[in-house]
């Protein structure tokens, strides 16, 4: 049995208790405080560390030794701490539920079961041949002389990776394009897609893989999350005034919505709203240098193809 009062960052997630691993923390690790798992709320069930720390080491740091009789005060403190933790978890669950209700109320006017058909119908460009989508995508969003990074996730940072930085015109001469693209344009001579190599950041990318309140794990949940993602895209157009350029169904549980990057005051406002709208803030901030999915690439987990649903070309 572990002493919950000695644990840090305790929270309930997916039917189990998550906390900072005391063994990892003692070695300077687990900065996010989520390595320890306990199967039952009162700490009497199976526990362990996701990094496979020795359970004996964990017990030595925060375990309750039962080879002696607890004092009345220790029993009282244990019951009090367990009750406090249950209340905290209940409050957190209620708050999460209220946030979800508020979010879904905002998106309700934009939710549709025909979201895929609606996006395709609204697209200024029709897609007759899916295999041509990668070329249509880059020629519609970038200028011929823009230097783009395309490749696999690891194709960055070494001299041999210079071959992954070509102008849009040069990429269009290649029949089969790589599966990933960074959202920015790059300086001449770049070998890394890091931020220091970025020349321009013309777009932002809005994605959320937990709009239903958690990460989807079933086909029905994935479909529901993408329907809400489509509603979020419409909300961003209507309420936030963003100009939509492209939408890609990633082939898993989310949509990638490419928008023109707004002026900095509007961008700051979006940053403040991102958490409440469950927008992935890391991608929002770093899409210009992140390896984003290209249309028609195959998702490594589902083996589904990423589909281009909407494309609004720039005026060249």
Question: How would you characterize the overall build of this protein?
Answer:
This protein has a 4-stranded antiparallel beta sheet with strand order 1-2-3-4. Helix content is 34%, strand content 16%. It starts with 10 loop residues before the first strand and ends in a 5-residue tail after the last strand. It has 2 domains: 1-109, no CATH class; 111-311, DNA primase, PRIM domain (Alpha-Beta Complex), CATH 3.90.920.10. The mean pLDDT is 89. β3 (36-38) and β4 (47-49) form a beta hairpin. It is elongated. The chain has 316 residues and is of the alpha+beta class. The protein has 9 helices and 14 strands. The chain has helices spanning 22-26, 55-62, 72-107, 115-122, 133-141, 168-171, 219-238, 264-274, 281-286; strands at 11-13, 16-19, 36-38, 47-49, 147-151, 165-167, 180-181, 185-186, 198-200, 203-206, 244-249, 255-260, 292-293, 307-311.
């Amino acid at each position: 049995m572990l002493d919950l009062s000695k644990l840090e960052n305790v929270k309930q997630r997916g039917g189990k208790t998550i906390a900072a691993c005391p063994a990892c923390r003692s070695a300077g690790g687990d900065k996010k405080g989520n390595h320890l798992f306990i199967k039952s709320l009162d700490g009497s069930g199976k526990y362990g560390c996701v990094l496979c720390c020795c359970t004996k080491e964990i017990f030595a740091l925060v375990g309750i030794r039962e080879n002696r009789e607890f004092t009345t005060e220790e029993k009282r403190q244990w019951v009090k701490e367990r009750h406090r933790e249950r209340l905290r978890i209940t409050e957190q669950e209620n708050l999460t539920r209220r946030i979800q209700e508020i979010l879904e109320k905002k998106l309700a006017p934009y939710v549709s079961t025909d979201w895929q058909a609606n996006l395709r119908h609204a697209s200024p460009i029709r897609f007759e041949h899916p295999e041509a989508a990668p070329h249509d995508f880059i020629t519609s969003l970038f200028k011929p002389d823009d230097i783009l990074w395309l490749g696999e996730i690891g194709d960055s940072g070494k001299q041999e990776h210079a071959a992954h930085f070509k102008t849009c015109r040069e990429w269009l001469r290649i029949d089969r394009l790589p599966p990933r693209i960074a959202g920015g344009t790059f300086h001449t001579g770049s070998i890394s897609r890091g931020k220091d190599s970025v020349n321009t950041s013309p777009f932002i990318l809005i994605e959320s893989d937990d709009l239903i309140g958690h990460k989807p794990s079933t086909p029905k949940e994935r479909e529901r999350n993408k329907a809400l993602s489509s509603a979020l895209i419409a909300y961003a157009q209507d309420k936030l005034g963003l100009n939509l350029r492209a939408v890609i169904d990633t082939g898993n549980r989310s949509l990638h919505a490419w928008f023109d990057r707004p002026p900095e005051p509007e961008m700051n406002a979006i940053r403040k709203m991102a958490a409440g709208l469950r927008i992935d803030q890391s991608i929002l901030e770093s899409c210009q240098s992140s390896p984003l999915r290209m249309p028609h690439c195959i998702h490594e987990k589902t083996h589904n193809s990423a589909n281009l649903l909407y494309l609004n070309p720039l005026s060249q």
